[in-house]
Amino acid sequence: MDLRGRNKVSAEFSMASMTDIVFLLLIFFMLTSTLVTTSALDLILPKSKAETVKKQDISVAIKKDLKITVNDRPVTEDALESELVSLIAGKEAPVIILFADESVPTGKVVKVMDIAYRNRMKMVLATDPK
Fold first, then answer.
1. Could you list the residue ranges that cross the membrane (predicted)?
2. Is residue 35, in this structure, part of any structural domain at all?
């Protein structure tokens, strides 16, 4: 009488599941690395077919003569940061919309956006949808 077991355990190791895991991790890291932005300031370019954000808490305008207004009140460049900080105090996730004339130098726009970045404010550059 043969009493040996019919089911024998295989000593081989299958690498198929290990390669599946490695490929899934590779795909995951490739996808997430493309979502990381390298620049500190996200800039929406003036030529756009998209509409400006409807929710508007604060508006900052830089006119042709480089005069700055906050909610239609004139503000000096030096007092702009303190004015914006006082306006967003107590608001949850305020949105600042920046209206800059085409002839305004990029340096002026970047200064205003830098103020928003330093104070962790969300700023959107208004565009002309034409």
1. 21-45
2. no
The total domain count for the chain is 1
The one-letter amino acid at 67: K
Q: Which of 42, 52, 71, 47 is nearest to 126 (CA)?
A: 52
CA torsion sign, 95 to 124 to 40 to 30?
A: positive
pTM, rounded to two decimals: 0.56
Q: Provide the domain limits for residue 106.
A: 58-125
pLDDT digits 0-9 by tens, 75-111: 988 888 888 888 888 777 778 888 888 778 888 888 9
Q: In what order do the strands lie in the sheet with 68-70?
A: 73-75, 68-70, 58-62, 95-100, 122-125
60-71 pLDDT, tens digit each? 888 878 888 888
